[in-house]
Design goal:
Blueprint: H1 17-35, H2 38-48, H3 53-56, H4 58-99, H5 101-107, H6 110-137, H7 144-170, H8 174-183, H9 187-198, H10 202-221, H11 234-240, H12 250-271, H13 273-279, H14 284-287, H15 290-308, H16 315-334, H17 338-352, H18 355-364, H19 371-380, H20 384-396, H21 412-432
Length: 441
Amino acid sequence: MSNQTVTMNLPPKQAGYAQSMAIIGMLFFVFGFVTWLNGTLIQFFRIVCELNVAQALLVTMAFFMAYFFLSIPSSFILNKTGFKNGMALGLLIIAVGSLIFIPAANARSFGIFLTGLFVQGAGLALLQTASNPYASIIGPKESAAKRISILGICNKSAGALAPLILSSIVLKGAEKLEADIAAAVDATQKTALLDSLASRVIAPYLVIAIILTILAFLLKRSSLPEIDTNAEDATTAAATQGKTSVFQFPQLVLGVLCIFTYVGVEVMAGDVIGQYGTSLGMSVDDSKYFTSFTLVAMLVGYVIGIATIPKYLSGKKGLQISAVLGVVFTVAAYFNTGASAVTFIALLGLANALMWPAIFPMAIDGLGRFTKIGSALLVMGIVGGGVLPQVYAGMFNEHSMFNFLYSASIDFRHAFLYCMVPCYLYILFYALVGDKIGKKA
């Protein structure tokens, strides 16, 4: 892409388009790696902290609730710090959250682990609030979905690697360990086994904290340029004329709910797939890798997006196709068992791949001076990744915080179906008409 197509003016000695994309790509890799460790942690904490399914799924709740509480403050922080400094600060906050895993492991305290996850989510909220609009605005609007698809490859490549790396360390020989823990008749012996297993998480999270600190320093010193999200062209100025609140943009408000449902189904497909597999009778040693299968399917989806958008497909059309595929794969998983069911859940990664790249640019299109706060609201919608797994658990597990949904007649397969299909249907609605509501023809 030539410099003439870039929509921002770059001062001398600042990074050009390609270098800026490379830096943002590195950030997408970071929050992909950190986010998709959760699938492994759900199974790890279930053993180490002796949890039921609903309790283990609090991992996603603690992590994604940070987005809900801290996305709006993140927009105000970015107004003070600028994008580059805000991103560096986000990396440091994630590093702090990673360090909290050390005392949590030593105390084998699920509550402290959840605190560390919440702090990590806070750092990621700041990173995402800055990096997503940056990626949308740094080049032409028509290719925004393609740019975010490229960055998505960075994100999901890290996501595919993360559970493989962490599982090989913390869940090595998990099935035998579970059997040994269950067979331990002496409380001291059982505690020693659990403490030994908990300590496995210390080294990887210490390494993560060190790497993130180094990256924050390098980002701070980089030549990444600032962007002006308050600048408005004639079309955008006309669209925002007389608007005093971000809530006067229906496509954004509906887009926040769309992000909520999308991230919910993405986390279900990636983080819950391991639990789904064990519920089907598969061993932990096998199911601990299932998250990577979903992420590989997402990578395939991103490659398809890069090849087809905007040359053959618009982001909007890609979102419509993706939502239909989501319904088809979910229903297919319900009507299958064993490896076939898990395969269809993994294929949801393919259906989900183009959703974020399409929804985010569609929702912030035409916001002008409201872009920062609009981006923050969209990032708040990521909390769906914490809520939907708990709703799912609440449908068949009386220990969930959503146990009012509990029914003895609903098993995990029905619960998965009832959670996923309505979400995909709403995404289809947004792709068809939701983004047009409130816009002038």
